[in-house]
């Protein structure tokens, strides 16, 4: 299987990959995911929220509809273009910024947000694991003392369980849009390697898009340690984003809510 290039995240995300990633999760599922985040954080509007790696803005828009002051940050311009159009259609004022999450504090003042969310598995994309920790530290800078950080990502032990053998599966994402998903786990580096082949047969000329990506994965113990080191206390953990039990050994996703400790 072809390995992902260095800094793959700069070129992998395109309109067709966005369609595969987001389309089936819009609407009711997005509302359920936001419901769970707000239930766990126990916050109500008016509050300031940063949607980190916001993609096409599905969570940003849902939060803004509920009265929150939202800003979305993402690196992929085509995703942000879609997010801005959707915000206009919904008559919502949401600030969308193109930027690198490793430099979050470059775009915002310290202690700017009551809540920062990193939802739908956007953590661990960088080549260096130290850059993943850097993201958490950057979040701590822009989050108010006592504010909450919700991060949803792959659970390392769950990845060991699910990818004990390489995965090779095919799906029909929507009518006449198909995807072949090949994935494996480097157990030594604890990094996944994935290759997508997307077949779009909705027109007479079938289009095929291929792309590879990789991701650092962390055990729940490692995730808690990083958050603690960056000045957070872990409040709770659940599994899939819309709510569900978390099993440290078998759950594919871990969704962690942490609170920034106020310095005395």
Looking at this protein, list some descriptive labels.
264 residues; alpha/beta; four-stranded antiparallel beta sheet; 8 helices; 11 strands; 30% helix
SSE diagram, text form:
Layout: H1 15-22, H2 28-41, E1 48-52, H3 58-65, E2 69-74, H4 77-89, E3 95-98, H5 104-107, E4 113-118, H6 129-142, E5 143-154, H7 156-162, E6 167-174, E7 177-186, E8 191-200, E9 207-216, H8 220-229, E10 232-238, E11 253-260
Parallel strand pairs: 1-2, 1-4, 2-3, 4-5
Antiparallel strand pairs: 5-11, 6-7, 7-8, 8-9, 10-11
Helix pairs in contact: 2-3
Question: Brief description of this entry?
Answer:
The protein has helices at 15-22, 28-41, 58-65, 77-89, 104-107, 129-142, 156-162, 220-229, and strands at residues 48-52, 69-74, 95-98, 113-118, 143-154, 167-174, 177-186, 191-200, 207-216, 232-238, 253-260.
């Amino acid at each position: 299987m072809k390995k992902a290039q260095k800094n793959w995240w700069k070129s992998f995300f395109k309109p067709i990959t966005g369609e595969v990633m987001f389309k089936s999760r819009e609407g009711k599922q997005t509302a359920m995911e936001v419901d769970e985040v707000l239930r766990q954080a126990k916050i109500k509007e008016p509050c300031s929220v940063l949607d980190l790696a916001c993609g096409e803005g599905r969570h940003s828009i849902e939060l803004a509809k509920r009265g929150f002051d939202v800003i979305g940050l993402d690196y992929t311009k085509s995703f942000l273009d879609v997010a801005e159009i959707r915000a206009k259609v919904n008559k919502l004022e949401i600030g969308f910024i193109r930027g690198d999450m490793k430099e979050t504090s470059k775009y915002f003042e310290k202690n700017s947000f009551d809540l920062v969310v990193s939802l739908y598995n956007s953590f661990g994309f960088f080549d260096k694991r130290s850059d993943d920790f850097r993201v958490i530290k950057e979040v701590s800078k822009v989050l108010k003392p006592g504010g909450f950080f919700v991060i949803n990502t792959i659970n390392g032990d769950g990845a060991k369980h699910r990818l004990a053998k390489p995965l090779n599966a095919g799906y029909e994402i929507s009518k006449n849009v198909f995807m072949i998903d090949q994935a494996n786990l480097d157990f030594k580096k604890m990094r996944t390697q994935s290759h997508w082949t997307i077949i779009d047969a909705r027109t007479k000329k079938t289009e095929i898009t291929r792309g590879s990506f990789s991701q650092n994965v962390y055990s729940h113990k490692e995730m808690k340690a990083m958050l603690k080191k960056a000045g957070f206390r872990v409040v709770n953990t659940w599994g899939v984003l819309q709510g569900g039990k978390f099993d440290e050994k078998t759950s594919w996703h871990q969704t962690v809510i942490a609170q920034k400790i106020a310095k005395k």
